[in-house]
Amino acid sequence: MSSIRKVVIPAAGFGTRFLPATKAQPKEMLPIVDTPAIQYIVEEAIASGIEEILIITGRNKRSIEDHFDSSVELEQLLQQQGKKMQLDMVRQLADIRVHFIRQKAPRGLGDAIYCAKAFIGDEPFAVMLGDDVVYNPTTPCLKQLMDCYEERGGTILGAQFVPEDKVSAYGIVAGTQVEPNLYKVDGLVEKPSRDMAPSNLAVLGRYILTPDIFTELEKTKPGAGNEIQLTDALAQLSTPIYALAYEGVRYDIGDRLGYLKATVEYALRNPLVKDSFKEYLEGLDVQAVYDKVLPFEK
Ligand code: G1P
User: Fold this and answer.
1) Rounded to the nearest whole angstrom, what is the distance from the C-alpha of residue 172 to the centroid of ligand 1?
2) 167 close to ligand 1 (CB < 6 Angstrom)
3) Whole-prediction pTM value?
4) Of 18, 220, 277, 284, which is most buried by a Cβ count within 10 Å?
């Protein structure tokens, strides 16, 4: 059994990269095919063996709580209509035990994690960011980090190599390779410019943290974007940090193109639509749509 039992999922951000969709609804609830993004994250946590889930929310995030709550009227209706598959689906969601805490002001990822201090207590824990949906049907991304923690201890960062022109969007690792997919971290920079980046190994949405991070977060001053950055607190830790280049297809669903890629690829894996969607894509005249040619003009 893993010593990592708890996960913190920060979901308090305003989702400004995805306006106007996020004006009145949380970006975590945007559906990928038919499932809200946050459900993929929660399902990955459960598949990895996590027992306690804490979601950090803010104002405007009520629908996340409702999604994991029971819905008596909906269940009654589905029962009356004999829709067993849908009934099982909504009941399973309500059975997932999720805790919530509100971050009172959007002071950054580091501050959001700090809100979990009392919930975590004195044990190592996982953090999953909702923007990073990772597809790996064999070994969930978080499980890969948990296994790595059992072997190495310390802090484990989930990472992948990104194109050099994308480094300024991420926390970037300076490290020394110790195993084919594992790097001992010597330094970390949040959103460096391309010429200041120590590598193109980016921290992508999954962490195993030790409770000493809270002591560092207390001392961390606002950094990039005038926010309390988790990366800055991590960079101050005196305990070992590793970056694991995890296996899986990672989608940045906080970005329009990343979200579209996730939608198309998840649809091609979804048993309910995959065949008809594949047929549609294969018959699609991409250039004609791009050129705005009306169907009857072809
Ligand atoms: C956050 C982290 C950053 C990380 C990124 C992707 O940034 O601060 O280090 O690389 O998530 O997981 P954000 O995308 O919230 O600005």
Assistant:
1) 10
2) no
3) 0.92
4) 220
